[in-house]
Amino acid sequence: MKNIFKSTKSLFRKKRFSMNDPILKQEDWSVHISPAGLLASLAAFCLFLFLLTMLLVAYTPVLDIFPGYRTSAERTHDELVESVMRVDSLERRMNQMLTYNENIAMIMEGRTPVVRTPLSDNDTVKLDKTLIPPSEFDSLLRAQMEGDGEYSLARTLRNQAQGDGRLIFASPVEGIITRHFSRDDNYLGVGIQSSPNAPVTSIDDGTVVDIVTGGESGTVLTVQHFNGYVSIYRNLTQVLVARGQSVKSRQVLGYNAMPEVGDKTNPLFELEIWNEGKPVDPEIYIVF
Predict the structure, then answer these.
(1) How crowded is residue 257: how many other Cβ atoms within 10 Å of its Cβ?
(2) What is the pTM (predicted TM-score) of this model?
(3) pLDDT tens-digit profile of 73-85?
């Protein structure tokens, strides 16, 4: 134990270091320092060199002089090349999207689509247009769409014009149908049980031709549509349109009546559709 204490104490005991001239036999320089102080000085010097090296690497281009490291100019060149390649890829995608849109438009117009290919490998702007010959499947599809088959466009339009379709008009209000169209009972519309003050919208574009207030059916609003159709909305309150005003499909016309105006025998909201002066079943034209 005493030997350990003596060794530790000797580390902090100052010693004299000197430089002597052997010719003149005299001392030129001397310093008193302990072994522990010498080790601390060496550690501080190494730390200073490390911090100085880090500052030089971070804020100066000192690495450019060492082989194996890329210079800032080379790194900038690589970034420019990557940017050019990215722009070229975006340009190719944009040209593909434009080609797709053009072909869709040509198909809708009944023309033959084209394929666009670059004129050379180094040019992505100047493109060559080559006609795509129609295949057997294209000819069959065109015959089905243009003919009088099950998927004929002409047949679909004709069915809608005759009133055979169900998606011609929009539903005017959300609710449950509690009374259906019946010529025998002289009920020429449908009764819809809906929540009070629910918004009532127009089933199609048209013009408000009449507004009658104060009756047993509340406010009655009539809208003239195209192709001879007329829609009548009964049991309304807070009408938001005026006579002679043009309305759009799904535009709010007003709000349905409160419970004291209608009940299950006299629904809160009633809708009638007339075509060329004759009442028709609204359920044929609307999916409620």
Answers:
(1) 25
(2) 0.44
(3) 777 888 888 888 8
